[in-house]
């Protein structure tokens, strides 16, 4: 049984290399990243051999606990495509205990398990300080690997239960996003803490707590032995072992449960009438706009890009915060940055439809109607956001007179970005997250092409808007006229570029429609 | 169902049937008239008028496929398909898995660019004048997604409006289609929560909503329950009788034999035989004829273990 599953896992890994070229590239990148990171960690751990016991202990304990927690959290947030889902084996009539151990052993064949084995080996080097610490570190090796693998198996299984309906999957992605945003905030806080002055104390406190939790205990046991605290070392080893035992029991129970559980049926919600489709008098471009807007409201992938908009400016400002640029200068950033991202948000919109785009093609929808409909939601959402943000940010800068310039730059960037997106999403759609997948699931092929398109659309937007930007900069130093000049230039150029983008993108769509469908079929 | 196949109460049938202009049939309400559910005297009467007129005059070709070729890398998916489909025929396309049925139909409907060959619908070339050609076609593709974050009602409204129908027309036809296909209860649910058969039905309804001259349906009966399949067949039959044309692909030989009057057998991307059902069957069942054309059955030997049951 174990042997068969191991062979199956190997075969699955091997077959991954026989897929399309881009997927292989992605896989190789993933492998390299995993390997590279574990090499960094391993050298770090070996380096810690020569650090004082206390410093090494803090580092290893905090890092180890975070690592184990990662194995719990990542599957919950990102959703993992589990090839060895116990449910896949439910029809073969394998005894539960046999299946659960076989699945666990086969999980040893994988990038995470290999990386963890390397890391657990390296911590033996870190703790090669006295006989007991070596013994405990060697004993910790299998415990570390088992803890991580069991954590991820249990977490993946729990996620499969929780996320079995579509609606909960949609909201899980959002929760994940909020968690990420919170993480970014913590990061800023952490960055602002004065580490040189009292960083050591903070870290020591965190390490102290972590070392008694099940996540950190296994890492702490050899550390305590190295510092001579035999009693607490043994106690922590015990905590770690009990934790693994509990995880194992939980895993067995879950496998047994999975084998007899049907995928949960979604409690389908009832909607009434035509919803947004009542808003505009019907015409192809109007219904496309309304359909698009409905997706912005109902589809988690669009939620993600909407939620990113208010967060992006703060992320982009972090480096400036760190180098302590005055706050009033910082107030100039949010509006242009949000405008840039709003305009950019639909640059791959066609690919978001996936193969459903056939309906537009088979119905003979004119390309420009398709293009026009798709830019309506970001306009409807974006214009009020930019206006409100400008009204808030201009006084924060200290000179309400720059308001027209800020509006001009913001709206100009939005309109121009949408125009470019209209061309880009028809000319170069690239694989996107498929409908119904987690918004943070990696699309099937992230290649150099997509990075190039993304970078290019930002750069070109900025180049096209450079006259307005220049007026805007002048408005900061010169009074009156230039601010209004920037507003007029932004609006006129923006509307022009949007119009050109829709017409040109429409022509490309008319010409390339079957090819757009083919590329989405490959996704 | 067997007792009165024609007068059967298929409410959408009259609304959907294409009544070619200038035909007497066009006097009946074309769209969405709330036809009484009980078999009325009117329905059979209009039926006897409608089917005869198109058949009286020389049949015209509504779909003309010439030398269609498609390659994917080294594999040739479609190797020169020629096919003429006449107005008012119910044309079945049968073939084993991977024979190129879907590829052919995608090229016919303008969804996949052919490497060579031409397709014309009602005299208009699909690939040189797509807008005009597509207007005459209703399409149900196989294995492509729907805009499934819309409710059933929204999807039908969307499909109808993209085809240029007025709001009132779409509303009436949606009601008709929903009762004909039996998804009234599902209209207000998201399509993504539908079962496979239900999605197929809503897609089929979306393909017909603009009452096209030609319906191209790729595996329309896959995972549709027998009752709905019977309803759909009924709707398609009356559509054909009033002058519409249906091209349908399927794996189910029985079904094709039962509902189609013409059939083409596609194997390895080429048509091995085509014509009226009788001429292709040539005295046998379609399945027997098909198996013969497709290369015969592999004799089943060495499977004796299957009858010696293990525990």
Can you describe this structure?
The complex is a heterodimer of chains A (523) and B (311). With 523 residues, chain A is mainly alpha-helical. Chain A has helices at residues 2-16, 21-48, 53-78, 96-106, 111-126, 131-162, 166-192, 195-212, 214-226, 230-259, 284-298, 300-322, 327-330, 334-344, 349-352, 358-362, 367-397, 403-427, 448-464, 466-477, 481-522. The model of chain A has no long low-confidence stretch (mean pLDDT 83). Helix content of chain B is 35%, strand content 21%. Chain B has eleven helices and ten strands. Chain B has helices at residues 12-16, 42-56, 101-108, 130-135, 152-162, 167-181, 196-208, 226-241, 253-259, 277-281, 286-293; strands at 61-72, 75-86, 90-94, 116-121, 124-125, 137-140, 214-218, 245-250, 262-267, 270-276. In chain B, helix 5 packs across helix 6. In chain B, 51% of the residues are buried. Mean pLDDT of chain B is 81; it is low at 1-56. The interface between A and B is large, with 44 and 39 residues.
Key terms:
heterodimer, A: 523 residues, mainly alpha, 21 helices, 0% strand, globular, B: 311 residues, alpha/beta, six-stranded mixed sheet, four-stranded antiparallel sheet, 11 helices, disordered N terminus
Could you estimate the helical fraction of the residues of chain A in percent? Answer: over 70%
The major beta sheet of chain A can be summarized as: none
Tally of separate helices of chain A: 21
Beta-strand fraction estimate of chain A: under 5%
Query: How many individual helices of chain B?
Result: 11
Strand coverage percent of chain B: 15-25%
Measured by residues with Cβ under 8 Å of the partner chain's Cβ, the largest interface is:
A-B, 44 and 39 residues
- Total number of strands of chain A: 0
**Helices and strands of chain B, in N-to-C order?**
HHEEEHEEHEHHHEHEHEEHH
The computed structural class of chain A is: mainly alpha
């Amino acid at each position: 049984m174990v042997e068969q599953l191991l062979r199956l896992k190997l075969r699955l890994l091997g077959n991954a290399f026989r897929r399309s070229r881009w997927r292989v590239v992605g896989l190789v990148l993933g492998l390299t990243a995993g390997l590279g990171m574990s090499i960094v960690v391993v050298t770090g751990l070996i380096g810690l051999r020569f650090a004082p016991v206390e410093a090494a202990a803090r580092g290893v304990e905090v890092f180890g606990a975070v690592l184990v927690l990662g194995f719990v959290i990542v599957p919950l947030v990102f959703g993992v495509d589990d090839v060895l889902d116990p449910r896949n084996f439910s029809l073969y009539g394998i005894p539960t205990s046999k299946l659960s151990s076989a699945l666990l052993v086969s999980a040893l064949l994988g990038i995470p398990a290999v990386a963890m084995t390397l890391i657990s080996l390296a911590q033996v080097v870190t703790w090669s300080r006295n006989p007991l610490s070596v013994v405990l570190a060697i004993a910790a090796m299998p415990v570390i690997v088992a803890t991580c693998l069991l954590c991820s198996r249990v977490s993946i299984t729990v996620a499969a239960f929780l996320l079995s309906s579509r609606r909960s999957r949609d909201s899980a992605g959002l929760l994940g996003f909020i968690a990420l945003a919170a993480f970014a905030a913590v990061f800023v806080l952490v960055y602002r803490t004065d580490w040189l002055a009292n960083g050591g104390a903070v870290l020591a406190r965190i390490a102290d707590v972590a070392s008694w939790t099940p996540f950190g205990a296994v890492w702490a046991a050899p550390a305590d032995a190295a510092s001579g605290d035999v009693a607490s070392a043994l106690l922590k080893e015990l905590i770690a072992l009990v934790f693994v035992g509990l995880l194992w029991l939980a895993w067995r129970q879950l496998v047994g449960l999975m084998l007899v559980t049907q995928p949960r049926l979604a409690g389908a919600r009832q909607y009434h009438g035509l919803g947004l489709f009542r808003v505009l008098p019907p015409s192809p471009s109007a219904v496309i706009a309304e359909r698009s807007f409905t997706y912005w409201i109902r589809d988690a992938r669009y939620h993600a890009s909407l939620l990113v908009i208010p967060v992006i400016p703060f992320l982009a400002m972090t480096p400036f915060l760190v180098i302590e640029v005055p706050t009033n200068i910082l107030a100039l950033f949010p509006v242009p940055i949000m405008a840039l991202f709003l305009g950019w948000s639909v640059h791959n919109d066609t690919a978001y439809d996936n193969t459903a785009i056939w309906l537009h093609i088979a119905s003979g929808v004119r390309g420009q109607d398709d293009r026009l409909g798709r830019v309506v939601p970001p306009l409807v959402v974006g214009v009020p956001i930019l206006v409100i943000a400008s009204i808030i940010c201009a006084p924060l800068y200290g000179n309400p007179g720059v308001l027209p310039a800020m509006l001009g730059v913001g709206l100009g960037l939005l309109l121009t970005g949408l125009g470019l997106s209209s061309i880009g999403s028809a000319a170069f759609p690239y694989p996107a997250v498929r409908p119904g997948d987690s918004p943070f699931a990696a699309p099937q092929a992230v290649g150099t092409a997509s990075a190039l398109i993304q970078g290019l659309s930002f750069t070109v937007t900025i180049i096209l808007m450079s006259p307005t930007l220049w007026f805007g900069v002048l408005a900061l130093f010169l009074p009156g006229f230039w601010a209004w000049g920037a507003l007029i230039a932004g609006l006129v150029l923006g509307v022009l570029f949007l119009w050109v983008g829709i017409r040109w993108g429409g022509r490309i769509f008319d010409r390339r429609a079957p090819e757009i469908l083919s590329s989405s079929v490959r996704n | 169902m067997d007792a009165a196949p024609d007068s059967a109460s298929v409410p959408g049938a009259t609304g959907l049937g294409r009544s070619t202009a200038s035909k007497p049939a066009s006097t009946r309400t074309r769209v969405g008239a709330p036809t009484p559910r009980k078999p009325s005297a009117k329905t059979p009467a209009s039926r006897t008028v409608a089917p005869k007129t198109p058949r009286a005059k020389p049949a015209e070709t509504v779909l003309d496929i010439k030398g269609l070729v498609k390659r994917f890398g080294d594999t040739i998916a479609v190797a020169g398909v020629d096919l003429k489909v006449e107005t008012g025929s119910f044309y079945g396309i049968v073939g084993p898995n991977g024979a190129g049925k879907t590829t052919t139909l995608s090229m016919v409907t303008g969804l996949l660019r052919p490497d060579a060959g031409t397709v014309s619908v009602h005299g208009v070339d699909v690939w040189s004048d797509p807008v005009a050609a597509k207007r005459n076609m209703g399409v149900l593709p196989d294995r492509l997604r729907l805009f499934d974050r819309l409710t059933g009602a929204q999807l039908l409204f969307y499909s109808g409006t993209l085809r240029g129908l007025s709001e009132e027309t779409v509303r009436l036809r949606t009601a008709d289609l929903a009762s004909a296909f039996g998804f009234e209860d599902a209209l207000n649910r998201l399509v993504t929560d539908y079962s496979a058969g239900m999605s197929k039905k809503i897609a089929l309804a979306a393909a017909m909503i603009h009452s096209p001259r030609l319906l191209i349906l790729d595996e329309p009966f896959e995972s549709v329950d027998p009752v709905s399949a019977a309803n759909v067949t009924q709707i398609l039959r009356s559509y054909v009788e009033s002058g519409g044309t249906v091209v349908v692909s399927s794996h189910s030989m029985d079904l094709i034999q039962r509902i189609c009057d013409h059939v083409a057998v596609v194997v390895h991307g080429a048509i091995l035989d085509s014509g009226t059902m009788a001429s292709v069957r040539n005295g046998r069942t379609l399945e027997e004829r098909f198996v013969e054309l497709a290369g015969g059955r592999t004799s089943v030997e060495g499977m004796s273990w299957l009858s010696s049951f293990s525990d």
